[in-house]
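User: Can you recover a sequence for this backbone? Please restate the input before giving your answer.

Assistant: Of course. Working from this structure:
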């Protein structure tokens, strides 16, 4: 009998798996519980070896945020469709959602302090608030070579 190879990112996380048919129920249930959902879009661990590291860190983050987060892994066959829905451009990525609202994404493996800072800022934002974007402002119709 041939053994199927299991995806190590999914095996090591101990988190439930969601797909296109179950993700909305997971998000709604998590929101009703007053929690923020964290979905892992891991990708193929053969192509993205750090997916295993992110899968190990995710349960630790859930514990560190003391009951404010609930995690799940996106099923491999649903990653393309849900990745488009949530704006995933890089794998592995953590997707933070409050209900149906995507709060933000954290791509690749990060230092612990980066995770804590980014997640804190995302989940502590008031409902419906947009993220602050800082950019340099250049006049639209400024002639070439003109001084600012």
């Amino acid at each position: 009998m041939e053994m199927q190879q299991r995806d190590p990112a999914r095996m090591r996380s101990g988190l439930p798996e969601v797909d296109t048919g179950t993700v909305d129920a997971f998000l709604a249930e998590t929101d009703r519980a007053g929690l923020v959902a964290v979905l892992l879009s891991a990708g193929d661990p053969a192509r993205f070896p750090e997916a295993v590291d992110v899968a190990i860190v995710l349960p630790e983050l859930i514990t560190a945020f003391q009951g404010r987060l609930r995690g799940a892994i996106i099923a491999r066959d649903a990653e393309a469709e849900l990745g488009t829905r949530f704006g995933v451009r890089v794998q592995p990525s953590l997707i933070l959602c409050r209900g149906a609202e995507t709060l933000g994404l954290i791509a690749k493996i990060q230092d612990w302090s980066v995770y804590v800072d980014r997640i804190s800022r995302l989940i502590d934002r008031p409902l419906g608030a947009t993220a602050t974007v800082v950019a340099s402002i250049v006049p639209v119709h400024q002639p070439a070579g003109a001084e600012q």
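That completes the design. Residues 1-6, 131-144 have pLDDT under 50 and may be disordered.
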